């Protein structure tokens, strides 16, 4: 698998990284990590909020006896901790991972201006700098679901060595952030290209037809891999077989082939019907909005009828709206936002109404433990 320089860290990372959010047991975690490393992946990403993921990664690294210098391990912690809390959380993550240091520490979900102000005013960053000086952390980065303006502000602060971004063929709002990070020589890590990129592992029939003879997911990977500014893409595999498609593309980072160009041209020809909706959502992201809407990933989901099946589209939007970080609490807020904001703002918005008629109890899916819950 090819490798790329991770910004000014000068570390060489594989073009695919193994994200471990979906690890649910030690055996599957070990087999997946073993398969990934054997295939050339050298970056493992976990987080304190990913359930027992850090434990599973630590156990696997010890059992497989992987030389420490051969892997780059990133974990993520909240951006709202005090300095004392951050120091303690770093120590606990190292203990769970059974490591002496983290290669990368990312602030997990720098989503609001209030969080950014907290970072500037608190001693949280001081504690991280102390950990870097002590050799417990090598590089600091951040992930964000926030507005483009917030992401650009964080990138321009010169406080970070890398950034984890949502950026895909079907969601290019963060293109200016890619450019800014590249200009600052930050490592660029694209997170969740299969899932947040439009649940491309279960695409709509329309999208499958437009992408033939390629799969939508393969095209999205190629869109990202052919961009030399991007260092690595995350794979949220829970089992070894889920690595197969990405591993087949591990050396495919050159220019798009004529066939791929033709497939993207077919997608581009859908602009009169679909891309105006994406532009409308991007405009909403750039405009002043009520405080609860500072997390606007929902807008991206709600404007991708080409990519998502109706049921997956609405059920995922509802799941996102229930997340604590977004600020919505009641089912009534979901209905109100969908009806009052999404439909009027999106051209051809009547296409959403059949989905809205489905009871939210059916669309919400089965009750399950969230990753941030104990």
Describe this structure in words.
The chain is α/β, with parallel strands linked by helices and 374 residues long. It folds into 2 domains: 3-257, Alpha-Beta Barrel (TIM Barrel), CATH 3.20.20; 275-363, no CATH class. It has helices spanning 26-38, 53-64, 83-97, 113-121, 124-133, 148-155, 175-183, 205-211, 216-225, 244-248, 258-268, 275-286, 297-302, 310-321, 331-345, 353-356, 360-363, and strands at residues 3-5, 12-14, 16-19, 43-45, 72-77, 102-107, 137-143, 162-165, 187-190, 232-235. The strands form 2 sheets. It has an 8-stranded parallel beta barrel, surrounded by 4 helices. The chain starts with a strand and ends in an 11-residue tail after the last helix. Residues 272-305, 324-365 and 368-374 have low confidence and may be disordered.
What best-fitting shape do the alpha-carbon axes yield? Answer: globular
Are there runs of 5+ residues with pLDDT below 50, and where? 272-305, 324-365, 368-374
The proportion of strand residues reads 5-15%
Total number of helices: 17
Output the radius of gyration: 20 Å
């Amino acid at each position: 698998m090819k490798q790329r320089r991770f910004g000014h860290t000068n570390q060489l990372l594989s073009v695919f990284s193994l994200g471990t959010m979906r690890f649910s047991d030690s055996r599957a975690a070990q087999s997946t990590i073993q398969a990934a490393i054997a295939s050339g992946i050298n970056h493992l990403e976990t987080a304190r909020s990913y359930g027992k993921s850090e434990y599973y990664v630590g156990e696997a690294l010890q059992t497989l006896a992987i030389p420490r210098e051969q892997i780059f391990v990133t974990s993520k912690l909240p951006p709202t901790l005090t300095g004392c809390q951050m120091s303690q959380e770093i120590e606990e993550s190292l203990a769970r991972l059974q490591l002496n240091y983290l290669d990368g520490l990312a602030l997990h979900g720098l989503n609001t201006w209030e969080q950014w102000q907290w970072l500037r005013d608190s001693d949280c960053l001081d504690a991280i700098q102390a950990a870097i000086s002590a050799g417990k952390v090598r590089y600091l980065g951040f992930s964000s679901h926030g507005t483009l303006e917030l992401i650009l502000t964080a990138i321009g602060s010169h406080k970070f060595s890398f950034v984890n971004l949502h950026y895909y063929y079907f969601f290019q709002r963060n293109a200016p952030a890619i450019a800014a990070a590249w200009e600052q020589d930050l490592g660029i890590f694209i997170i969740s290209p299969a899932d947040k990129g439009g649940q491309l592992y279960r695409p709509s029939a329309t999208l499958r037809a437009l992408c033939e003879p390629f799969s939508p997911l393969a095209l999205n990977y190629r869109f990202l891999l052919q961009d030399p500014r991007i260092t690595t893409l995350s794979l949220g595999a829970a089992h070894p077989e889920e690595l197969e498609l990405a591993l087949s593309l591990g050396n495919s980072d050159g220019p798009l082939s004529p066939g791929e160009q033709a497939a993207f041209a077919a997608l581009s020809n859908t602009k009169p019907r679909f891309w105006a909706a994406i532009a409308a959502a991007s405009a909403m992201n750039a405009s002043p909005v009520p405080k609860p809407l500072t997390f606007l990933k929902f807008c991206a989901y709600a404007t991708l009828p080409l990519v998502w099946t109706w049921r997956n589209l609405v059920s995922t939007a509802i799941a996102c709206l229930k997340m604590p970080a977004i600020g919505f609490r009641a089912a009534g807020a979901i209905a109100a936002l969908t009806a009052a904001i999404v439909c009027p703002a999106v051209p051809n918005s009547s296409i959403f109404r059949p989905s809205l008629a489905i009871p939210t109890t059916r669309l919400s899916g089965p009750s399950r433990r969230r990753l941030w819950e104990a």
